[in-house]
Amino acid sequence: MPHIRSQKYAQRALGLIQRVKEKNEKVKEYRTLALNFPTMILQSGLAQAIGFLQAKGKEEHLLLLAHIAELLEENENSLHKKILEADLPHYQLLTRQAIEAASGLKRYTQALLPKPKDEQGGQS
């Protein structure tokens, strides 16, 4: 039985987030980015959101970019170019797919990468 796209993203996102947790590097920074990225796509658009990750160029930004590209089965180096060159229907499809992929990452980030101790008990 074929999986729906969101199930496929969720299964693969779980493995990606487990690797982030195991490596335990830049978890706090990655967590913040992953939790906010679906909203960033909605507010700024897919091209700008992906461009932001590339432009920042920090480890956690590039890791999230690599995860999004992997979930979309795209090359992280050519993803932004593909988005920029897409016609409107394809851009809309890529946006929907990216939001679903980013939402999968967000869900597992919330579950597996807990808030750092210095943030618990404060505002959410």
UniProtKB/TrEMBL annotation:
<dbReference type="InterPro" id="IPR023101">
    <property type="entry name" value="AF1862-like_dom_sf"/>
</dbReference>
<dbReference type="GO" id="GO:0005737">
    <property type="term" value="C:cytoplasm"/>
</dbReference>
<comment type="similarity">
    <text>Belongs to the CRISPR system Cmr5 family.</text>
</comment>
<dbReference type="GO" id="GO:0051607">
    <property type="term" value="P:defense response to virus"/>
</dbReference>
<dbReference type="Pfam" id="PF09701">
    <property type="entry name" value="Cas_Cmr5"/>
</dbReference>
<keyword id="KW-0051">Antiviral defense</keyword>
<protein>
    <recommendedName>
        <fullName>CRISPR type III-B/RAMP module-associated protein Cmr5</fullName>
    </recommendedName>
</protein>
<dbReference type="InterPro" id="IPR010160">
    <property type="entry name" value="CRISPR-assoc_prot_Cmr5"/>
</dbReference>
<keyword id="KW-0963">Cytoplasm</keyword>
